[in-house]
Design a protein that fits this description.
The complex is a heterodimer of chains A (about 300) and B (about 280). Chain A has about 300 residues and is an alpha/beta fold. Helices cover about 40% and strands about 20% of the residues of chain A. In chain A, the strands form three sheets. In chain A, strands 2-1-3-12-4 form a five-stranded mixed β-sheet. Chain B has about 280 residues and is mostly helical. A two-stranded antiparallel sheet of chain B has the order 1-2. Chain B is globular, with a radius of gyration of 22 Å. The chains are: A alpha/beta (about 300), B mainly alpha (about 280).
Amino acid sequence: MSNQNQLITYAVVALVIGAAVGYLAAGPITYNKQIQDLQNQLAAEGEAELIGSLSIAGSTTVLPIAQECANLFMGQNLRVDVSVAGGGSGAGVKSAGSGEVDIGEASRNIKASELLSYPDLVAFSVAKDSVAVVINPDNPLTGSLDLTLEQVSDIFSGEITNWSELGGPDHDIEVYTREEGSGTREVFVDYAMGSKEFAANAGVKPSNGEMRAAVASNQYAVAYVSFGYIDETVSAAKINGVEAVVENVNNGQYPITRILWMFTKGMPDELEAAFIEYVQGPEGQAVVEDLGYIPIY
Amino acid sequence: MRTGDMESKVLFLCASLSAVIVFLITAFLLREGIKVLTPDFLFGMTWSPHRELFGIFPTIVGTLCVVTGAVIIATAIGIPSAIFLSEFSPFWVRNIIKSSVEVIVGIPSVVIGFFGLTVLVPFIRDHIGGRGESILAGWIVLAFMILPNLITIAEDSLRAVPRSYREASLALGATKWQTVRNVVLPSASSGIRAALVLGVGRAMGETMAVLMVVGNPETPWIPTGILDRVRMLTSTIAIEFSYAEWGSTHQHALFAIGVVLFFMVTALNLIATFVIRRKNIQ
């Protein structure tokens, strides 16, 4: 009798375990089936799946756009791997032109000399941007600093050396600048510096991020950064009474504006084209806007 | 074929590889840099690539200032540490100090630079003056980086002095300190010197950490005080190389800086070897 009871108990336990295993195993199967259905559906719609890897390098101004778009793009194309690096506009043109990377980025126009070296570069505009003069939020002039382009060039060339000359505290102005060849620097020179040289004692920082960090950590510092790098850690000065915001670039009141570019060597292949179209498309342009740059499509 | 022939050939290949690589690097640097290696380049006072002015004299002086100061600080702390560890320290104290010193070696230089930028630089700005980014900041960061190797090598060479030397000195009635000063230190001097030379070489070639704290002015000048900002030879290459147009004078000038750096470190090693050898012959 007790033997029979034991047998029944075993049978019940076996059934429960079996059911549990079956139930758990069925989970993945339905999940796999869903993915398969989705893939079939995509195939049926004629969307060829993108496969491969893309390397992108260049301007630190364009970098955040490329990085964010790459993340979203990889989320939608699971078999695509996009790697994004900095290096600067010069490096972006050079490495795209020589084929080291698939897509180069620059925050300035291609120079004639570069076109001579790399005649088969094809350029795609991806966004508009501007350059702002930024100071530390703890600087008493924060919010009220309003400069003419003439004053901007005087500050950065070392002719105005004390904040008191601008109505601020009696302390040296500590100027930071980008390294030679930086797209941001070249745009800043074109619009603000003209033929003036940067002050010899200006500290050189090799990226937008380091410029911002230098100003954020130093009450008496002044630097210039891409609009995309303005955040609460720094405060942008007005130029000619015009606030450094995207609307004022769009309506032409803010005096500095530039196009941000991506390049390929020769016409882009399928994957390169897909990525550039993504950046230029609605989702990419939404990223552009979120990051503080100006959409152009 | 004799046994061992094959093996020795493989060993020879491995050994010659590093010599070949050194030779190739030197040849490449020279080929790229030789065009701009003129007195104007070495003694020119203005570095401003967009004006086609390539003078690295202030950069050389700046590099030497930072390296010399860092090595002096590191020596002033490192050699006494090594003497303590090898001659006076109880076993357990030595274990603790040595292992923490060895941990420093493992810290990547960019992390030390980051620490310098976020802690040291603001501290100097607030409490000493200037912008914070300065020769002084470079000294401290570099000294910290060369200290561990200096201590380790100096201590090893102190411990390598035969016990019998110490015993003989003590038996003659010398005190412990007299023994260290007159017997142990002179016997270990070549090793200590080697430690210093390695430290100088490391300091001269260090890039990331110092780049972050020495300030890198747009147009470097000859520094006049320890709060002045300077450029290092290495940081000039690191900052500008990715932007220099391929084949431009600017790029050749950066290669030429590499040549200068290479010869400075080599010359230093040769001098050190010479000094050590002469000392040993005496």
